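A student in our group prepared the protein record below, which I am reviewing. I have pasted the whole thing underneath without changing anything:
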Amino acid sequence: MSKPTSSENIVSQKYDRCLADLLVKAGVGFGVGVVASVILFRRRTWPIALSTGFGMGAAYADCDRSFNPARVPGTRIITQLEESK
């Protein structure tokens, strides 16, 4: 029999996933920006900032959906009153 997980542990796991997702997506965006900057844009810095920002924005959107599932399209929140009917 497993011990129930506390709400603090659930929230901390979500924060850990969000932080890991942020680091991965920002890192990938940074790498893509460096490659694009060197190959296409004569070593300008704006492609690096732009692609890193895209990665951070994607991570933020995923984290927002993790903490607020009502923002996921097609999700329906069922209340106690609706369950008892």
About this structure: The mean pLDDT is 89. Residues 12-67 form one domain. The helical segments are 7-39, 46-67, 80-84.
